[in-house]
Amino acid sequence: MKIKHFILSGAMMLLFTACATKQSAISQLEDFSYELRDNSRNYDAGDWERAGKKFVKIREKINKHEFDYTAEEKTKIGRLEADCVKYMAKGAKDGVFDKLKNIGSEIKGVIQGILDALGPNSFEGENL
Question: Is the pTM of this model over 0.85?
Answer without folding.
Answer: no
